[in-house]
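hey so i finally got around to running both of the ones u sent me last week. sorry it took forever, my laptop kept dying halfway thru and i had to restart like 3 times lol. anyway pasting them below in the order u listed, first the sequence line then the structure token line for each. didnt double check formatting much so if smth looks off just lmk and ill redo it

first one:
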Amino acid sequence: MGKIVETPLMKQYFDVKRQHPDALLLFRVGDFYEMYGEDAVIGAEILGITQTRRANGVSQYVEMAGFPHHALDTYLPKLVRAGKRVAICDQLEDPKMTKKLVKRGITELVTPGVSINDNILNHKENNFLSCVHMEKGQGGVSFLDISTGEFLTAEGSVDYIDKLLNNFSPKEILIQRGSKKRFEESFGTRYLVFELDDWVFTSETANERLLKQFETQNLKGFGVQHLTLGLIASGAILHYLDVTQHTHISHITTLSRIEEERYVRLDKFTVRSLELVSTMNEGGTALLNVIDKTVSPMGSRLLRRWILFPLKEVRPIEARQDVVDYFFRHPDAKEFLDIQLGQIGDLERIISKVAVGRVSPREVVQLKVALQAIEPIKELCEQSDEPSLRRIGEQMDPCVVLSERIGKEIQPDPPALLNRGGVIAPGVDAELDELRTIAYSGKDYLLKVQQRESERTGIPSLKIAFNNVFGYYIEVRNAHKDKVPPEWIRKQTLVNAERYITEELKEYEEKILGAEEKILSLESRIFNELVTAMGEYIQPVLQDANLVGRIDCLLSFAKIAEQNHYIRPVVDESDVIDIKGGRHPVIEKQLPPGEPYIANDVYLDKERQQIMIITGPNMAGKSALLRQTALITILAQIGCFVPAESARIGWVDKVFTRVGASDNISVGESTFMVEMTEASDILNNLSPRSLVLFDELGRGTSTYDGISIAWAIVEYIHEHLSAAAKTLFATHYHELNEMERSFKRIRNYNVSVKEVGNKVIFLRKLVKGGSEHSFGIHVAKMAGMPKSIVKRSNEILKQLETENRQNGISSKPIKAITTHAEGYQLSFFQLDDPVLSQVRDEIKNIDVNNLTPLEALNKLSEIKRIISGK
């Protein structure tokens, strides 16, 4: 790339670019947004547009890429999704009004975490910007979704912050300059981070910025004043909004504490392995996909939050269940609400756009439709016999004055853009109506002029038309040009005709064009006055959005319960988990038509059966049983009905899983290391109210090590009163079945199979007692393993089982293959095989250095004779 000469335009560009050097700058030039230099190279590659050069002085050029300004909504999302920060630089004055270089400035900085653009946002999930501030092993974190106004904060250990980051999945995280390495060591490298200056991360700066935002004397009313680190993180987020030119944020009216003590702890391993909101494998189905029957974006976003934050208190859980029950008993109400909710749209994000002054006429009408749909919802809720639903209805505010004003002032089907005109309804403004009459009855007037002039001059083919060069004109064919009156002024000569203008047409043109300009100006003023007035309703509309989301989630629970035959579980203060006929909510939906899901019972308590050790072959359904127990518990504690014949859930405070190997080999950790790290995390955080699922723990190391570690972990959970968690332990180690004899609250179970001839049939039924062997060889055969290996595996298994019965775990070597059967030779020199010993001795006695080819062949023939026994 050649050296960039600073022409006036380029100098202006670099002055703007210096404000945000790390952002891609979209620089408005006429009807295009242009990128220069390195930005052009990066932008062209992401957007798939042509990279060119802009001539820039003698023999100079600069790399350039660009796109039409009206295509911003198409191209901007692509840049943001690629993880880029994008500064939008617009023309701040009309080019027609100045003879100098047009003034330009940054009007918005769009980043992955700060956007209100519909094409960037996913309506099913929040778009959180986060900030993390760490001090001495403790951290403060805040989350803000500028598109909805939700603003949350919390404080705690590195583990707790990590769990929140994992659950909220922020699109961008702010940290203190210079702390990126420390952040990545604690939370990994998968997040997009941006560093802010040190001075932003102080209590004084944060408090000042927060008090300015909320216009209060202190923060006591929000219940967050004691979260020093959380407040620093929250203040830093608001500072970042100032930096990114997002100053219209009146919809951010409160800062809420994430109340850790109210919610079940689900660490990131549990969320991932239970596939609560996303799947580990492409094409899989998450629990959220199965139970999400919401019809509004607010409901969809709230349901995701509910799944990741199940409740611990019984009463709020029962309040949700009561509403679901009500919908079950009143199908008409359920159907009616479903229709009404479907009309509401993204109320939360529309009112947030009102706050930032970026709402379109079409969205204003959608707001009116939403508010009108809320009226009957409020009425139905208030009249119901369900107290929780009545409370929701009482809190709703359909903002009748606002919806009526929108209905009166805005056309029912306005254009998406204000500058297209036709937004304001007739009868709102007398001057506007008059100007419209002038502007839009023009065709009739011109036809009259055309007819009159044709009759006056005797030119039958005379016609009046318009172009952008000289406005309205009269066109006369050459055959009649001698009839043209002298007062007409000739403007253009064509091959077959002449074009003229008249004083009358010029006056009319000025009147028409002036009217169109005035119409747009008036419509803009009236619309902006309405938007300003709508700003007064931000708080009640956000409240409505929240309540609509809540009803939508509970309605979704009722729909899914009816469709999938779920029942209402009993959630209580007991320490019992008693699931009868439990099913896996995801797997049962993926079975072929007509194939029933084999349901199972699970019972856990603190007195008789605290730990279930579950053995059984691979593919028998041990993992599914473990997962379904956790999923049923989580569903119960979010207020949803569950897939079972009956269920009693003594609320749990934490759910831990060690299911499957989640290798971190890319960062140098083996399967076994990951297993042990996750197991340690579980054991260090257990409580008597926890639910723990261990699946095949210890398989990443040798059999003896694995059995020893598994035994010690089960013993610890059983013996330590502070860690006496309800536990399901699926294992291949049949030796663990011995524990039932020594520990009173451990019980053996197995997932049964049936042997028919030489085949195995998986019954997927949980029965009492341990299983004797694992049928791994049968599974290998089903997977298509070569027959020779399956056959040899069976031989070795028989030898091991025989010797194990005689001597306990055998230290005797396995007999090698001594025939020339198909397969691989596992070991050549087995000392206890006389034939192989003889072969070994023959080979050892050969003098290789003095052996002739003929002698070698004879020796091979001799060895072959020994092996074949001839």
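and the second one:
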Amino acid sequence: MDYSVLSGHYNFYLMFLSFMIAIMASFTALDLARRVTLTDGWRRKLWLTSGAVSMGIGIWAMHFIAMLSFHLTSVKAAYNMVMVGISILVAVLASLGGLFTSSRSRLTLTRLLLGGILMGFAISGMHYIGMAAMEGVAIRYSPGLFVLSFVIAIASSMLALLLAFRLRGNVPLFMHVKKVGSGIIMGFGISGMHYTGMAAAHFTPIPLENTMSSFTVDPFFLAICVAVGSGVILKIVLFTSYFADKRLAEQMAFNGSILEKAIDCIVLTDREGKVTEFNPAAELTFGYERMEMMGQPLIKLIVLPPFLANRSVVEFLELTSSGAIDNRIETQAVHADGYEITVELTVTQVSLHGMTQYTIYMRDITDRKLVEGALKESEERYRRLVDFSPEAIVVHRNGKIVFANEATVRMLGVPDTTFLFGHSVYDWVGEDRKEEVTAWLHAIEYAEDPAGPIELEIMKYDGERIEIEANSILIQIEGKSFIQTIARDITEKKRSERTVKQMAYYDGLTGLPNRNKFNDLVTHSLEFAFTHELLVAIMFIDVDRFKHINDTLGHPVGDLLLKELAKRLSRCVRDSDTASRLGGDEFIVLLPNTTRDQAAIVAKRMMDAIAKPFAIEGNSIVVTTSIGIAMYPNDGETSEALIKNADLAMYEAKELGKNSFRFYNQRMNMTAARKLALEQGLRGGLERGEFILHYQPKMSLSTEQIVGVEALIRWEHPELGTVGPVEFIPLAEQSGLIVPMGEWTLRTACRQNQAWQLKGYPPMRVAVNLSMLQFKQDDLVDKLKLILQDTGMSPEYLELEITESVAMNNQEQVIEKLQAIKQLGIQISIDDFGTGYSSLSYLNKYPFDTIKIDRSFIRDMREVTSEAAIVQSIIEMAHSLKMNVLAEGVETAEQVAILKAHKCDEMQGFYMCRPLSASSFEAKMLAGKPGG
């Protein structure tokens, strides 16, 4: 390593960048000196501290970038982080001292010299500490240039302090130009100190030790990072100062607005008692124009109280114990027309631009004193009646309040009664009712018509809105007409009335109109439609599978779903339409003045809106709706008939696959009559033995042998013929008959299977469906034991099928019950897999033996369809869980081939055989196959 003195060169771009940072830091210093001066208290300390930090970082950034602009030959310098940090701290302290000095009220020569020396030494110290942070080189300095750099630093600091002090006031725009120019001068001064110090330095290379406190980096990249960071900080400070100035200007404008809009007289005077401001309220009260009073003595307006008669106005203004400062006193004042008025005044003393000024707040209380005098002359009991009345009593003239009792104070929430004097009664009334109140008071004053009480909403002092009932009369006091208003707060009464009305006519959960309100609206709508020969539509809406959501996710989630669903329904109708809730998951919509096509459009809009997922309590819930529509007058002329027929149409939409809408037609009455007949005959049919079982075989795909049957219930109705389970099972579930019906099915299927085995046919399992109500029975396990015992069938030949909705309801209890059933030796399968939750998250928790793939996947299954991929996934998933897989609804040879290819275990469907009676099944499927 060559230890000779190193030479180097500057990067012009980084030098220019350092100059820009220096100018920006200098301009910030000038601006912040002004900001510190304009504030006091904690805000002054905040500006002083934040300004020193931002300025210090700016000055340091200029120095650091300037150092990075200097490139030594043959040596790549590193920097000691500790020393760099110390240099930043010194720069901040230098800025703090400069801001503190320039923001003082006076800048003497001594303070200027002392501040400049300290700040100059601090800036020079920051520079040479930063130089000392360089590692890999030894530095020695030329004494002359070294001293010169300190002189430049001190001179620049003194210049900066002087400029900051001179330009710190609230200056006009052209002075900001001077501030920019001063910032440039200061920037060159600070930069000059740095480059003088750099010229004084001579660098000698030394070995560089790698330490944790050192770093090396590309100088140009580091300079850009420092410039951007410091620039952002300085801009933030400047913008903050700018917006603070803007807020100060806005505050001054706001104060001026207050002066203009104040209802009290506000008069400002100087220390000699001469008027310097006279607001509009004072002009109105005293009859003088503002310019007439400017510069006039205050004595022209007010008459000093007797106890101050020998004092001057100045003495009156400056007295604090017995005078007007911070005290509320009454005295006489002189109107421009020469007559005296009574005023109440208070004086506050302020210092503005270093000058003492007085603000006099005055209120004309002539009318109030008149009323008070009249009240004093009246009987004591009347006075007590007014003062202690629980109802608010206000006396006003030309809308201006001249008297108010304590009840008024409580009702309006104002500090005291005197606060109200001089206010207008209209100040408490909303804009939408002022015209009405004006007409009401006019009628009272001029007795045009008997003016009864009025109910209106007013605003209290704190902004709260209340409702009052007011009654007013005209009274005479010393020959002058006044209006006395008695008001009482009826907010709670009105709230109670609205609550009762809400409870009577609106649904408590969704806020929609209820059945009572809907019936009223329909009645009026039909009357109007009859008169004008219009069409009206009634839409009956039911949420599909809502009970399933309540059973699986709970009623609180179901209630939230209904609320969100009500909102979507409301957004689908016109303002003239009405969406109501009848109860449960049933809604009804009134569409007045519509057509059949328009009703269909609304129905489609509702179905689309409701089909979108609902995000509720962390669940994504998808529901559909079934909608029935009845049209006035063709489908009924009364609300009862229209609602009943819309309900019938809704049930047909539900029975035809749900998620659809239907218009009512006459045929639906026949369907309803059949349903009623089935409901009435269901219990008797069970007792009379009208139910039979059919059996559908299950075949092994690998051996093509029958391995079991599924027992399916049928109803041989004596009048209606064979009734399928699709019709009577929902009725049995609604009535609760599904429990004894399911028990009969279990017992009959087990007895038949045992009989087949006794005849010598090959043993096989018989599968029986369990309904949710049947599964919920506490004694289910005991009943299963009893049935097996009574029929003599071994448990291994019984298979129970449950749906996903049963499995997901109260999972812990379901799992516990399923395990108890498994302990009996009974097989368990999950039916219609793929139509509900269908996920491993619950399958691996349950003791299922078989998964039955729903027929909807098998029906559309082809070799390369998504259904085939889903079926393959289900089979692989089930096999991984050691479960058997059965495909339902197999109808074609192609489906059989695909299932075999995917290694499905079993199948059932019309491809093999339709469900058969016990005798037919025995003759067709079991004949010729005796067992051992």
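quick thing i noticed on the 2nd:
The two ends are 105 Å apart (CA to CA).
anyway thats it, ttyl
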